Amino acid sequence: MRFLILFAAMLAPASTLAECTVRSSDTTAALVELYTSEGCSSCPPADRWLSTFVNPLGTRRVVPLAFHVSYWDYIGWKDAYADERHTERQRALATATGARMVYTPQVMIAGRDFRGWTSERAVAEAIEAVNRQPARAQIEIVSRTPAEGGAAGVASVTLRPGVKADDVALLVAVTQNGLSSRVTAGENRGEKLSHSFAVRDFAVIRNLQGAFSFRPKPDWNLRQMSLVAFVQNLKTGEVLQALSAPLCRS
Asked: CB–CB of 231/157 below 8 Å?
């Protein structure tokens, strides 16, 4: 009997994993993207600035992301959170918005370059302007945390009547707070850098509905992680809606 009870307990986690459903609101959340690198000496102030969004505004008003890019890795320090896909995304957005170059630190709000991030007033006004817009899409995420960790689920989008689906895609990402690095080479040598909302993995769902699965990495801390989803016109860079929620936990 004891063996049967133990066997049943071992099976329970796989069969009783929690399932969480979150939906975006009727107003538009402001997607705030930071393109940054640990190899960039001017990036730490922007990293600290993005960290201020951890508490005050909440996920229904602003959805922060930090994409660590790879093109500064060659100057002496390899950013552990950099991903070539992040670099490709930044370059694709530059093309979509007519920019002539990419740079770090770059802040984008709602898919548009925003250079006023050092002004608290300018940031508040930009976010409020996005929030005043009625949502042109609703996002729903049904997620779970697999027994081995990470995140998996299904995300879907319902477009507002009259909104064309041409060139529109759903992007799902998993982000992590509480990260830090002791830099021993390059422009930030000797500095301890801290990061919030760092993108650890992401997927592009072009038909506005589909499954996602993110396998955990050794340094993932699920308690510090969130799922982010946003709807974007890949041809123009325009963001229609965004959503963020903590990882589903049993």
From this structure: yes
pLDDT tens across 173-190, in order? 999 999 999 999 999 999
Phi, psi of 94 (to 5 degrees): -60, -45
Is 4 within a domain? no
Residue 3 belongs to a domain: no
The number of distinct structural domains making up the chain is 1
CB proximity list for 168: less than 8 A, separation 6 or greater: 157, 159, 208, 231, 232, 233, 234, 240
Residues 134, 164 contacting (CB under 8 angstroms):
no
Report if residue 116 sits inside a domain. yes
> Helix, strand or coil for residue 239?
strand
Q: How far apart are CA 113 and CA 97, in angstroms?
A: 8
CA distance 209 to 195: 30
Up-side HSE of residue 90: CA atoms within 13 Å toward CB? Answer: 27
Residue 12 lies in a domain: no
Low-confidence ranges of the chain (pLDDT < 50): 1-16, 57-58
Domain that residue 197 falls in = 17-246
The reported pLDDT for the residue numbered 17 is 65
Report whether 170 contacts 227 (CB < 8 A): no
What's the distance, CA 170 to chain centroid? 12
Tens of pLDDT, residues 121-162: 999 999 999 999 999 999 999 999 898 889 999 999 999 999
Residues 191/37, Cβ–Cβ less than 8 Å? no
Check residue 147 and give its pLDDT.
87
Measured distance CA(169)–CA(159) in Å, rounded: 11
- Beta-carbon contacts of residue 99 (< 8 Å; ≥ 6 apart): 93, 113
